[in-house]
Amino acid sequence: MMKQLSGVIRNYFIKGSERSLTVKRNVLYSFLIKGLSVLVGFVIVPITIGYINKVQYGMWLTLSSIIGWFSFMDIGLGNGLRNKLATAIALDDYDNAKKYVSTTYVLVMAIAVLAALIFSFINPHINWNKVLNVNEPGLNLGFIVQWLFYLFCVQFIVQLINVVLTARQESASVSFILFLGQMGSATAIFLLSRFTEGSLFYLVLVLTGLPPLVLLIAGFFLYSGRLKAIAPSFKYIDLSNARQLLGLGGFFFVIQLGVIVLYQTSNIIITQLMGPEEVTTFNIAYKLFSVVTILLTIAITPFWSAFTDAYAKDDFVWIRSVVKKIRKFWMIVSLGAAMLLLISPVVYKLWIGDAVSIPFSLSMVVFFNVLGNAWVASHCYFLNGVGKIRLQLVMYLICIVVNIPLSIFLGRIWGIQGVVMSNILIHLLMSVVFYIQTEKIINKNATGIWNK
């Protein structure tokens, strides 16, 4: 029996097209690496809460969400690079590939430096105690946020190595680099908890400083080695390519804004309506069920660039087969998440003890939220890969207009659960629209906005 099972597994990883085999290897390695990352992520939470406290942990989560809003600063260049680079590699056009990488780096670097300078002038005039709805006179929040933003700008630049690796269908390498950064942060937090008093500033330095350092080192070694053919170079900077990168990237820019509004505003709304301690409550529940998102992201991330490759070669048979498999995987993961929901009270008890109390109703709405997010993402990765994103643009514009007022309205009625319910309703609408668009494109009968 074991011999037969071993044969089936072995055949799975040695049979199929080169594109399929590349995806399978990346998914397997990513699962192994991400499994370790999930464990590390769960361990970090109680250590961090123990190092500072529930309120300051909520402040950190809210601050990181606010700074995360600035990820839109790349104006879609990252995603534009991913698609353009994947297409160039599929066509063996390495000269243009190097130009795309070099041009993106210089543009993103210019944006990051400009943003850091502007923020340096604006930050002293922001009352962060009021923004976070706290009274912490002993904390110099302005100083902490300044450092947080500077480190974010560094990561903003060095994380482009992940975009390049993903375009090359090497998502497992991305997972490994992120895991190293996470391990560094976890080790540092453990040492801080043993040898220092609780400090939000130290926590910010560790959690936002070590990951970009790892990315910087990884980029240096990779571009000096196997990625040398597409390594960024001043000689290959071609600003005429900026229009191509921004043409597609401009749509991604608006989509990124919509994603920020949908996923990065919940913490600030919760802290304003209910206080930063409730941000901790929400994020612990979200952390538990984010396993669903992590599993699906691992499975579908390699397919973005693979879809680009297949679409460039008109391989719709392969595309149709893969989309069906992704949907089946979503169903399997959903069943596992339902079982996790049932035992969630026990899991919380074992994980964080009595430090934070999580209502079952909150677990339930977070469960439906992550399932909706996973279903939307499973279709958006295909649509992004083939460059059909105009309809996403429309949907995320609706999201930008609707989500925040709806979250506030429902949050005042039902607390944290109401804030999450707003996301669920938007996911429901997107799920239907993107499913229909995917089917139309696969069946080659998409017209009008469905094919843009």
UniProtKB/TrEMBL annotation:
<keyword id="KW-0812">Transmembrane</keyword>
<keyword id="KW-0472">Membrane</keyword>
<protein>
    <recommendedName>
        <fullName>Polysaccharide biosynthesis protein</fullName>
    </recommendedName>
</protein>
<feature type="transmembrane region" description="Helical">
    <location>
        <begin position="199"/>
        <end position="224"/>
    </location>
</feature>
<feature type="transmembrane region" description="Helical">
    <location>
        <begin position="284"/>
        <end position="308"/>
    </location>
</feature>
<keyword id="KW-1003">Cell membrane</keyword>
<feature type="transmembrane region" description="Helical">
    <location>
        <begin position="393"/>
        <end position="410"/>
    </location>
</feature>
<feature type="transmembrane region" description="Helical">
    <location>
        <begin position="100"/>
        <end position="122"/>
    </location>
</feature>
<feature type="transmembrane region" description="Helical">
    <location>
        <begin position="360"/>
        <end position="381"/>
    </location>
</feature>
<feature type="transmembrane region" description="Helical">
    <location>
        <begin position="245"/>
        <end position="264"/>
    </location>
</feature>
<dbReference type="InterPro" id="IPR050833">
    <property type="entry name" value="Poly_Biosynth_Transport"/>
</dbReference>
<feature type="transmembrane region" description="Helical">
    <location>
        <begin position="416"/>
        <end position="436"/>
    </location>
</feature>
<feature type="transmembrane region" description="Helical">
    <location>
        <begin position="142"/>
        <end position="165"/>
    </location>
</feature>
<feature type="transmembrane region" description="Helical">
    <location>
        <begin position="27"/>
        <end position="52"/>
    </location>
</feature>
<dbReference type="Pfam" id="PF01943">
    <property type="entry name" value="Polysacc_synt"/>
</dbReference>
<dbReference type="InterPro" id="IPR002797">
    <property type="entry name" value="Polysacc_synth"/>
</dbReference>
<feature type="transmembrane region" description="Helical">
    <location>
        <begin position="172"/>
        <end position="193"/>
    </location>
</feature>
<feature type="transmembrane region" description="Helical">
    <location>
        <begin position="329"/>
        <end position="348"/>
    </location>
</feature>
<keyword id="KW-1133">Transmembrane helix</keyword>
<feature type="transmembrane region" description="Helical">
    <location>
        <begin position="58"/>
        <end position="79"/>
    </location>
</feature>
